[in-house]
Design brief:
The chain is built from 9 helices and 16 strands. It is α/β, with parallel strands linked by helices and 295 residues long. Bound molecules: ribose-5-phosphate. Ribose-5-phosphate binds next to strand 13 and helix 7.
Length: 295
């Protein structure tokens, strides 16, 4: 039967874009919540013999991880030959270590649940900091795409001669790639995190940013504190303007306001998580990866 794409809930438009970009058939699905918050999933159309790619960005994490697990079981019982998860945003990757005694390493728990039910995983820029590869946590074939080409194309179209800034040492991986593709200078700061909403990046070179348009690049915008802090510092050091680009725009309550108050000229993200700031389309890369297969 070949490749079939389906999208759950808020990811249905992403599934449509992926299907269009790859010329794949699209199977409709319904994801709803019962009044008590439990997930309801319905996969429509015949799945018998199909290699089904379930597109579901895992945000909000708890609802969407559960939806994906339920959908995978349903797909198998409806006769799908193979079931893959396309999670453009892969949640539960940040707790990759027991930082304090007694903490649960939730990345391992969620990876085990997903690995038990899917034949493979495709995602975009997962939060690989202490884990160097998805293979360290996922036991199924897993492909991690990068949004750097899509981001670089947006940067070239939208900002003249920017200076790219990464807020922490981990960001070097994506900031350096985007900078190379844009032919732009870049720097990477040092970050100390005190809590989920208290964070401090330091080491921004005034000579590099003075009079320039600064673009802060991060993988995730969650509370917005990391990006807002860097934007504020860049402007204090004399940058002509400061904007932010995130791969995954989660925008926890208050994040947008924080970024505005910090003086951000623009904040844009890729469309891995549907949100009003998603201007950078990564679905052509996802479609191409599906064509190449997850192995
Ligand atoms: C952390 O290491 C990530 O790369 C991001 O910097 C972080 O997730 C951003 O979170 P927030 O917006 O809450 O500061």
């Amino acid at each position: 039967m070949g490749i079939l794409i389906t999208g759950l809930g808020r990811s249905a438009p992403l599934a449509g874009l992926i299907a269009r970009a790859g010329g794949f058939r699209l199977a409709p699905a319904t994801e709803q919540q019962f009044p008590d918050g439990e997930q309801y999933i319905r996969l429509r159309g015949s799945l018998r013999g199909a290699d089904l790619y379930i597109v579901n960005s895992l945000f909000p994490p708890n609802d969407e991880v559960m939806a994906a697990l339920i959908a995978a079981d349903a797909a198998r019982s409806l006769g799908a030959r193979k079931v893959f998860l396309v999670a453009p945003y892969l949640a539960y990757m940040r707790q990759d270590k027991r930082f304090k005694p007694g903490e649960a390493v939730s990345s391992r728990t969620v990876a085990a649940l997903i690995s038990e039910r899917f034949d493979g995983l495709l995602t975009v820029d997962p939060h690989l900091h202490r884990y160097k590869s998805l293979r360290e946590v996922y036991s199924i074939p897993a492909v991690a795409l990068h949004a750097d080409e899509a981001i670089a194309a947006w940067v070239k179209r939208s900002v003249k001669q920017p200076v790219l800034v990464g807020p922490d040492s981990e960001s070097r991986q994506w900031v350096s790639r985007v900078a190379k593709l844009c032919g732009a200078p870049f720097t990477v700061m040092r970050k100390q995190r005190f809590s989920s909403t208290s964070v401090q990046s330091s080491g921004l070179d005034a000579k590099l940013v003075k009079g320039r348009d600064v673009l802060v690049l991060d993988d995730i915008i969650s509370s917005g504190h990391t990006m807002a802090g860097v934007i504020r510092q860049a402007l204090e050091l004399g940058a002509a303007g400061a904007s932010g680009v995130g791969v995954h725009g989660l925008f926890a309550p208050g994040a947008r306001k924080l970024l505005k108050l910090a003086g951000a000229s623009h904040v844009v993200t890729s469309n891995t998580v549907p949100n009003g700031a998603a201007r950078i389309d990564v679905t052509p890369w996802i479609a191409q990866a599906i064509k190449e297969g997850i192995a």
